[in-house]
Amino acid sequence: xxxxxxxxxxxxxxxxxxxxxxxxxxxxxxxxxxxxxxxxxxxxxxxxxxxxxxxxxxxxxxxxxxxxxxxxxxxxxxxxxxxxxxxxxxxxxxxxxxxxxxxxxxxxxxxxxxxxxxxxxxxxxxxxxxxxxxxxxxxxxxxxxxxxxxxxxxxxxxxxxxxxxxxxxxxxxxxxxxxxxxxxxxxxxxxxxxxxxxxxxxxxxxxxxxxxxxxxxxxxxxxxxxxxxxxxxxxxxxxxxxxxxxxxxxxxxxxxxxxxxxxxxxxxxxxxxxxxxxxxxxxxxxxxxxxxxxxxxxxxxxxxxxxxxxxxxxxxxxxxxxxxxxxxxxxxxxxxxxxxxxxxxxxxxxxxxxxxxxxxxxxxxxxxxxxxxxxxxxxxxxxxxxxxxxxxxxxxxxxxxxxxxxxxxxxxxxxxxxxxxxxxxxxxxxxxxxxxxxxxxxxxxxxxxxxxxxxxxxxxxxxxxxxxxx
Length: 470
Ligand code: SAH
What we know:
By secondary structure, the chain is an alpha/beta fold. Helices cover 33% and strands 23% of the residues. It has two domains: 2-196, c-terminal autoproteolytic domain of nucleoporin nup98, CATH 3.30.1610.20; 270-464, Vaccinia Virus protein VP39 (Rossmann fold, 3-Layer(aba) Sandwich). Helix 3 packs antiparallel against helix 7, helix 7 packs across helix 9 and helix 8 (200-208) runs parallel beside helix 10 (231-244).
């Protein structure tokens, strides 16, 4: 199994820093199912290519399996795994390039944060659903996709195509994003699951999918296929993705194993309900200028931009990557001059004073506070309520009491949450902040109401007390 990644970013050999693998060396890494070799077939200033070759050892693979594996047959020993890229390649790549996937690079952090020209080649890739599905998965992420079906036998064209593709992806993408996308999408493209799925698989999916999966038009399909036949996990992941991101479309393509999935209830995803509630609250407040603090990849900004009542809109986040997604979503490059004056995106940290936060009728902190270390929360309170002093502040955050109703969820709703509050804790926090900074506060719930546990999301609307204008 072979995967190559090339760049023409100059000096191209910087790829070695990003991957934490020296271009002059051939390195081997043992996996439970085989051996990975990493080497650079070309490494010049102009162009550099890294190759990752996985040699699967079928005997070790068979022995490393969980006992309840469904395929205990000769197929374990006689199969295509030595030749075709598959979910195993995804697992191996994820492991060998784990630091690169995290986006950390001591030698050159700026480069690790930047989108660079990349070409990714998979000479043989099993792909359920053919070339079309590979385009549906990679094109929305900004890749140009060249997918050629491989004939069953080149000498016998009448036999038709095999289930393999030659796949080439070209794009300007941050390397960590590219590797995380491949990590998730290999098993999605592949025909069968090759590794055991535990409950932490959902966390892995959300982590690797950070910044791109929730907004992907095929998020539903990707989640179902990634989690294979584990319908409980799939439901949990979809619920948690809905927490994070875009409206999930109904299952677009029924997977072959669809019958194992319970019929999904038709309901409005929680994040859509959250957007509705905050949007309505802003309209009720009569806000004209709004700043979305911690806007993420910009789903809510998009809603604001489409609402003519808002004459000035700003979005800010600490993550440049999220801002890039937001810019793409809002098509800032194609905005008219008037529109460009109305909408502004900028990078910032909410724990540091910044005059660009000031002068808005309303500020939104949607699902943001729980991403801060509790020790940094006071800094955010001071910066937002004490210094920026918007006319109103709308805060949403999970109600952790409700988590008991998420099947299979242990811990918090998202791996990146530093805390999640009960209703009582949120009430105490918001009362204290309101009293300290001269605001009134009103609290509501968003999402399905449970008699005992309340609503999944809690909302607080802070409005500045009159006579408080200095
Ligand atoms: N508001 C969006 C995104 C929520 S995810 C939504 O509701 O969909 C939380 C966001 O907060 C992430 O995009 C993260 O990058 C951002 N964030 C976390 N800590 C931050 C900080 N200190 N300063 C600015 N943004 C921060």
